[in-house]
Design goal:
Length: about 450
């Protein structure tokens, strides 16, 4: 077996015979690392080949696959209703955010449901994992197996011997293929190990969880091909010192990519939050300028979140625009609308925007709330704590219609809000409210919203 030295980009897996400063594929600097390349690749994939021959698509018999219910409703929702047998799920997130904790809790519940689980811990010994399981209070059955191993050949041997229903790899960056001379965590190792494990899961119908670390830029460590070969990609979001965690699906072949799961980190592990709106608004200050409530939609789940704005005079003539949980470019656009169309003087003001609770908003229905929060902070006028704002703002300061308005309004009613500002176009369709205790005010322009509030 002949080997040669090549340089591989750690971001996009581009190869070069010599070291270069800038990658021509992805444009990143200083990302090339020296690796030993094997001319004759491993024939390990041939040993797990099922030998299936091509068949006619019209002759394929389809039956509804039974999803494996984990027992954690937030996780089941994000996965699309449970785990599909033979699917490969990638879980990414910052160190310490709860990837291993959630995997261990899910494994324990799956074993209680009668499924055979194999937990491969490459970063912790068996005793350390046992201590963590005792701390979390998990009580798995006798069908929960655990092993500390990073050799891919031995891992495949364990899987063939036990024939588990679910396998958890913690984490893919420490697993290595001995026939590849590069170190664990390199592009070659991550790509080859993930490809072999995925092929094994597909051929044997095993549900496979792969835990992956992320880089300082927030992307999964290793090549982007890791996201392409799996069926589902889940990302943990949340501030490091916040107790709340958001689990978001960025890719899902068996469900929606708009669903999120909300968890709270406690001493006993991750606890699911069934009513996130109430949690996110529990510490909202009363009678404070720059604080408004908007209703956003994540998949089929409506959530009420608080948007806070702070406007102050700029120092040394340099204005600052900062946003936490809201797109910076969108914030700049809405500030320009306030200046040009509404006439608010913001050119010499520092503007800071924060979405409380660590939520990241991508729903355009929050535009009206952002505009009102900035205007309230600038004018030092409070917004009623009993009002919720809905609407997308256009460049002419018009308030555009939003999707699924009735679902958002019913969520606001549930939490006791008395008034709702809504685009007039949404009022043209009949709103089937659960009860009529909330007053709905239709608007067409941002100026109307500021006058009413």
């Amino acid at each position: 077996m002949k080997t040669k030295v090549i340089f591989v980009c750690q971001n996009c897996a581009a190869q070069s015979p010599k070291w270069v400063g800038k990658c021509a594929g992805c444009g990143s600097w200083n990302s090339f690392v020296e690796e030993n390349f094997v001319d004759n690749p491993s024939n390990l994939r041939q040993t797990i080949n099922t030998g299936d021959a091509p068949v006619l698509l019209s002759e394929v018999n389809i039956k509804e696959d039974h999803r494996l219910k984990i027992g954690i409703e937030e996780l089941d929702r994000v996965l699309g209703g449970g785990i599909v047998p033979g699917s490969v799920i990638l879980i990414g997130g910052d160190p310490g955010i709860g990837k291993s904790t959630l995997s261990l809790q899910a494994s324990s519940l799956l074993s209680l449901g009668g499924y055979k689980v194999l937990y491969i811990s490459g970063e912790e010994s068996v005793k350390q994992t046992k201590l963590r399981a005792d701390r979390l209070g998990t009580k798995p059955k006798d069908n929960f197996y655990i092993v500390n191993q990073i050799d891919l050949n031995l891992i495949i041997e364990y899987i063939n011997r036990l024939s588990p229903d679910v396998v958890i790899i913690d984490s893919i960056q420490v697993i290595y293929q001995p026939e590849i001379s590069s170190s664990p965590g390199s592009v070659s190792q991550v790509r080859e190990c993930a490809g072999i494990l995925t092929h094994l899961a597909k051929t044997k119908g095993i549900a496979l969880f792969i835990i992956g670390h992320v880089t300082k830029e927030g992307a999964l460590a290793g090549p982007r091909v890791l996201e392409h070969i799996v069926d589902t990609v889940l990302y943990f979001e949340g501030e490091r010192y916040s107790i709340y965690r958001i689990l978001r699906a960025t890719k899902n072949r068996f469900g929606s990519t708009n669903e999120i799961g909300v968890f709270e980190m406690t001493s006993l592990g991750l606890r699911q939050v069934t009513n996130p709106s109430e949690i996110f608004l529990s510490e909202r200050p009363k009678d404070t300028a720059g604080s408004v409530v908007v209703s956003i939609l994540e998949g089929t789940r409506p959530m009420l979140v608080e948007i806070q704005a702070l406007v102050s005079s700029a120092s040394f003539g340099m204005v600052r625009r900062r946003s936490q949980g809201f797109d910076y470019n969108r914030l700049s656009l809405l500030v320009a609308v306030l200046e040009k169309k509404i006439g608010l003087h913001l050119a010499d003001k520092d503007i800071f925007l924060n979405v409380a609770g660590g939520i990241k908003i991508i729903d355009p229905a929050a535009d009206l709330g952002v505009v009102v929060a900035i205007a309230s902070a600038l004018l030092e006028k409070n917004v009623s704590p009993e009002i919720v704002l809905l609407g997308e703002v256009g460049l002419a300061s018009e308030v555009r219609s939003i999707s699924q308005a009735i679902v958002r309004i019913n969520e606001a009613q549930k939490l006791g809000f008395k008034r709702c500002l809504l685009p007039n176009n949404n009022l043209k369709s009949k709103l089937d409210l659960k009860n009529g205790k909330i007053e709905i005010l239709g608007i067409d322009w941002v100026e109307e919203a500021l006058e009413l509030i």
